Amino acid sequence: MVTYMETGATDPRYNLAFEEYVLCHRTAGDTLILWQNDNSVIIGQNQNTLEEINVPFVEKHHINVVRRTTGGGAVYHDLGNLNYSFITDLDNPEKLTINQFTIPVINALEQLHVHAVASGRNDILIDGRKISGTAQRIEKGRILHHGTLLFRSDPEMIDGALNVDPHKFRSKSSKSVKSRVGNIADYIDEDMTLQEFWDHLKKSLSGEGFVQSSLTEEELGGVEQLKRDKYDTWEWNYGRSPEFEKHHKSYWDGGTLEIYGNMKKGRIEALKIYGDFLAVKPMGEIIPLFIGKEFTKEECRSVLDGIKLPDYFGTITEEEILATMFE
């Protein structure tokens, strides 16, 4: 039986704190959370925020900018978009795939006679248009998988709020956001409201049934503290970056990879790694392993050899990382 929860809020800072708190503190059972954010750009954990947003547009329209703890790229949320989160035990990390979580979503859409397919690294498409992006995080034997579902979102706001890197779409004939995203409501025969869609997903994604649950007063206090200490802060959402003397950006099948480095007497003094690759663990866990090491391909390879690369770089390979560092 699935535990079903709602956040009761549309503040992205609160909602991401709520999701993370449940992941880290409700350590048994299967949980489904459905939630919405008011106008927001949600930045992937390894992205450089200022490169991903259209700052004048974001400021003019009072759009929230918040970083999440999962990999992937920046996405726009509004109240025409519905988010879902699955939290469950991770039985076998080696066999983990996005598909095991996207198939229930695709099946839920099929029940509405909407034909969707999983595509690329983390997308769900209808008629070639993206209606969902997904990402994952692993935490102490538990996995969070979450995704967006564009039900009736405003494509003009998506287009305006995000800085779309043209290199990512250099092989496609059309680069406009309108041509790449779609709304689920446009493919449903009947006139369905978002609340009706929400109710349908709640039942469908719960499988054999659900038990409605909520956080205790003490747990809600923990959510508020996490929000204040992390998601409300400029340091988390934007982050201070030192001046770097080396910078290179590469485009791989697994996503963009951007590396900044400061070297002193031939050794790595500071390092920043950005990108929209699908990491499931935070980059901060491995950055210290590079500090103090000689800035040579051999030395950096030895560090990478000791890391479970898919956890931090998704499908980007060791050779691709080294090519970016030493291009």
TrEMBL record:
InterPro entries the UniProt entry points to: aa-tRNA-synth_II/BPL/LPL, BPL_LPL_catalytic, Lipoate_protein_ligase_C, LipoylTrfase_LipoateP_Ligase
Keywords: ATP-binding, Ligase, Nucleotide-binding
Cellular component, GO annotation: cytoplasm
Example GO biological process: protein lipoylation
Keyword tRNA processing attributed: no
Keyword Coiled coil included in the entry's annotation: no
Catalytic activity from the UniProt record: L-lysyl-[lipoyl-carrier protein] + (R)-lipoate + ATP = N(6)-[(R)-lipoyl]-L-lysyl-[lipoyl-carrier protein] + AMP + diphosphate + H(+)
Enzyme Commission number(s) of this protein: 6.3.1.20
CDD domains: LplA
Residue ranges constituting the BPL/LPL catalytic domain according to the UniProt record: 26-213
Pathway participation: Protein modification; protein lipoylation via exogenous pathway; protein N(6)-(lipoyl)lysine from lipoate: step 1/2; Protein modification; protein lipoylation via exogenous pathway; protein N(6)-(lipoyl)lysine from lipoate: step 2/2
The protein's enzyme class: ligase
TM segment ranges: none
Molecular function as annotated in GO: ATP binding; lipoate-protein ligase activity; lipoyltransferase activity
PANTHER family, alphabetized: LIPOATE-PROTEIN LIGASE, LIPOYLTRANSFERASE 1, MITOCHONDRIAL
NCBIfam families in the record: lipoyltrans (TIGR00545)
Name of the protein in question: lipoate--protein ligase
Classification of source organism: Bacteria, Bacillati, Bacillota, Clostridia, Peptostreptococcales
